[in-house]
């Protein structure tokens, strides 16, 4: 081993070779040597340092510390002090301070104590530390104070860090979370979701995961969170931990669920709506196509429900609909779908049934469920329904036809007298299609003014003078010409359209009568006789409507006669009596139309006490004339007379018939012998005239 002397290396050379700024300091602090690095670091020249006290390089606040260190050396030369743990600086010539690590060591040569002081510039390291501190601060902002719930987990998916947002989302403190996995506060069914994605991470199958899972909040609520998870890796790609960021989507999901429920359910009854039923029907149909079996669709319509709304108001109507919905629901199998189809119609879709027998059982169960009266709005209301049933299988129908067929069957059930069901018979719809398209066209006709009232004169048989007119409706159809009312009135009676037609007839007829009265003397003012259908007569709004029209045209009530058939009068006799009484009070006359065809009992006739009885044409013009038919006519006419009613004979076509009726003292008559029903202007020309027979 050679010495520096052997190698011809001086101690100065050694000091100059050191990477640190170094000074040789005596016990008084005086620097006897300073290397070039020290000069460089402090900004002084070698000569400016040598001979000066080292305190010149020490910032005032650190000077006592340096003194203390040197004193320690004096006592214990073996001490070696390195300060790199605190922020030390050296005072440079230009007054600035440079951040350094600082080391002092003692040296004894020939009994003299020396201190070797060295400093190393550490500003680069300090800058790095500063940067790290700032990064930590940023991280805190990004993580701890983030509004988004965040969690870091280790390779076992245990929580190593979490922020406030996550804690408050699930209602737990950090202490309860750190070191644990999320199982204890995960919704039991969803534990597997997080587990499976974690294991896929560990197997390197995925680099990022996104899933939705539910948590259990401490207060018992279920929280739905959207989770996105990604690994934090080192430079080599090794996973260090996982960063999980979450989003509380509970409200969002609830809102969506609510909206989709609203989109598919009827707000009043909470039952499925048409959109949902359409969907289920399409599914059921394709299942039947694939797997066979039968499906049934039951279309239920409440009978005369409109009356409830009109009489008791919509509030009661709504309550009744709800109550009906609950009854129907109670007899609905869970596998089937019950829907409110709109208004007072309900649809029931049954799958997997054996055939029409079972469908009829269901239909009966439905109808029977409405047997008991409904207690709503302090009332006890009876509410029955009619049902159209269609049963289908894979061979016989298109899904779009099912609904139509149910509708056709319902129409038939109504026509047969309501409160019953009717099972669709294949082919039935051909009639119905025609019927529906006519109703459609008729609606159009009302709107576009293709309906008109024609007027058939009513004649006093003793004098042949015109005393009134019966208003008869006519429909001018572009292709079919004038369509008689017998072709369209019965169709309109199946829907609300009849009320529109009825209102039109009243309006036109009352207006016409008021015109006829104007030009002539008051003695010859003719009355107008308007036909009412059942729906119209039993409509609670009728009285108000009639009054309004009379007022509008200033037509005295006694110039209006309303005609109802026996059939109409015998529906709800109590109602009929009340209505007749109210009309009579107003001064409006009631005529019983087509008398003799309805088999009403004589006691009813006396009870109804109409002003006029219109003897049906079949008695005036019997198919086979005989002694008996003559007697029949005679009996009817004298019967009316005995009850004090005015008798009117319909359908007089011949002079003979006229003579017969005159012989029976029948007071009024109408028929082709005098005139057919004619348009308003022609009728006007007949006012105040007499026929000459
Ligand atoms: P209705 O009330 O019994 O009317 C008498 C019908 O007999 C009318 O037929 C009339 O044209 C017809 N007629 C009159 N005299 C004779 C005759 O001498 N010989 C023959 N063969 N027929 C005669 P129309 O106009 O076809 O009306 C048929 C039915 O349609 C009416 O029977 C009535 O029930 C109904 N109707 C007509 N207009 C209206 C209306 O505005 N509202 C309602 N609800 N029903 C109406
Ligand atoms: Mg009539
Ligand atoms: Mg008649």
Structural notes for this entry:
By secondary structure, the chain is an alpha+beta fold. It has 4 domains: 10-122, Beta-Lactamase; 146-254, PAS domain (Beta-Lactamase, 2-Layer Sandwich); 265-426, Alpha-Beta Plaits (2-Layer Sandwich); 438-686, EAL domain (TIM Barrel, Alpha-Beta Barrel), CATH 3.20.20. The protein is 42% helix and 26% strand. The protein has an 8-stranded mixed beta barrel with strand order 18-19-21-22-23-24-25-26, surrounded by 5 helices. It has a 5-stranded antiparallel beta sheet with strand order 2-1-5-4-3, sandwiched between helices. A 5-stranded antiparallel beta sheet has the order 7-6-10-9-8, sandwiched between helices. It is rod-shaped, with a radius of gyration of 53 Å. It binds ligand C2E and magnesium ion (2 copies). Ligand C2E binds at residues 456, 472-473, 484-486, 489, 505, 531-533, 563, 593-594, 617, 650-653, 670-672, 677.
């Amino acid at each position: 081993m050679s010495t520096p002397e052997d190698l011809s290396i001086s101690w100065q050379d050694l000091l100059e070779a050191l990477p640190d700024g170094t000074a040789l300091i005596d016990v008084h602090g005086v620097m006897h040597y300073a290397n070039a690095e020290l000069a460089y670091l402090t900004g002084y020249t070698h000569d400016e340092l040598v001979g000066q006290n080292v305190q010149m390089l020490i910032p005032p606040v650190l000077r006592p510390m340096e003194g203390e260190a040197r004193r320690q050396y004096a006592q214990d030369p073996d001490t070696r002090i390195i300060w790199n743990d605190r922020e030390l600086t050296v005072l440079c010539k230009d007054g600035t301070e440079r951040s350094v690590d600082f080391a002092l060591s003692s040296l004894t040569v020939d009994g003299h104590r020396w201190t070797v002081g060295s400093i190393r510039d550490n500003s680069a390291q300090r800058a790095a530390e500063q940067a790290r501190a700032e990064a930590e601060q940023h991280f805190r902002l990004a993580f701890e104070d983030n509004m988004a719930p965040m969690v870091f987990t280790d390779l076992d998916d245990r929580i190593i860090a979490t922020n406030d947002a996550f804690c408050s989302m699930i209602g737990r403190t950090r202490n309860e979370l750190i070191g644990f996995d999320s199982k204890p506060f995960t919704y039991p069914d969803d534990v597997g979701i997080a587990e499976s994605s974690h294991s896929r991470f560990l197997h390197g199958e995925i680099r990022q995961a996104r899933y939705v899972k539910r948590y259990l909040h401490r207060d018992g609520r279920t929280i739905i969170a959207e989770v996105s998870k990604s690994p934090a890796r080192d430079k080599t790609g090794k996973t260090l931990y996982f960063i999980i960021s979450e989003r509380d989507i509970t409200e969002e999901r609830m809102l969506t669920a609510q909206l989709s429920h609203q989109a598919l359910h009827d707000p009043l009854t909470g039952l499925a709506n048409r959109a949902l039923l359409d969907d289920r029907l399409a599914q059921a149909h394709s299942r039947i196509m694939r797997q066979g079996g039968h499906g049934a669709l039951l279309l239920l319509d409440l009978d005369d429900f409109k009356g409830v709304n009109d009489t008791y108001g919509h509030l009661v109507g709504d309550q009744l609909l709800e109550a009906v919905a609950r009854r129907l629901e109670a007899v609905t199998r869970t596998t089937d779908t019950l829907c409110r189809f709109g208004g007072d119609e309900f649809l029931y879709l049954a799958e997997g049934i054996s055939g029409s027998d079972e469908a009829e059982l269901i239909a009966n169960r439905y109808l029977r469920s409405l047997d008991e009266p409904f207690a709503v709005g302090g009332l006890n209301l009876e509410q029955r329904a009619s049902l159209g049933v269609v049963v289908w299988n894979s061979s016989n129908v298109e899904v779009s036809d099912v609904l139509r067929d149910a509708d056709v069957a319902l129409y038939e059930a109504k026509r047969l007298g309501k409160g019953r069901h009717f099972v669709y018979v294949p082919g039935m719809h051909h009639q119905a299609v025609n019927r529906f398209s006519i109703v459609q066209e008729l609606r159009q006709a009302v709107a576009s003014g293709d309906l008109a009232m024609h007027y058939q004169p009513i004649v006093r048989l003793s004098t042949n003078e015109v005393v009134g007119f019966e208003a008869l409706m006519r429909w001018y159809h572009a292709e079919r010409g004038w369509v008689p009312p017998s072709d369209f009135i019965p169709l309109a009676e199946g829907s609300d359209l009849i009320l529109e037609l009825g209102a039109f007839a009243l309006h036109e007829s009352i207006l016409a009568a008021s015109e006829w009265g104007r030009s002539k003397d008051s003695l010859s003012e003719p009355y107008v006789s308007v036909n009412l259908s059942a729906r119209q007569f039993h409509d609670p709004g009728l009285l108000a409507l009639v009054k309004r029209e009379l007022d509008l045209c200033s037509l005295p009530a006694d110039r209006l006669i309303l005609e109802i058939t026996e059939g109409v009068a015998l529906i709800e006799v109590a109602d009929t009596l009340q209505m007749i009484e109210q009309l009579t009070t107003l001064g409006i006359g009631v005529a019983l139309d087509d008398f003799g065809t309805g088999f009403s009992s004589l006691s009813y006739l006396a009870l109804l006490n109409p002003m006029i009885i219109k003897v049906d044409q079949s008695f005036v013009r019997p198919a086979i004339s005989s002694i008996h038919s003559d007697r029949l006519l005679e009996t009817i006419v004298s019967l009316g007379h005995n009850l004090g009613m005015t008798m009117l004979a319909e359908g007089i076509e011949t002079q003979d018939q006229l003579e017969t009726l005159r012989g029976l003292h029948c007071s009024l008559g109408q028929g082709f012998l005098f005139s057919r029903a004619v348009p308003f202007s022609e009728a006007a020309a007949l006012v105040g005239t007499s026929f000459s027979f």
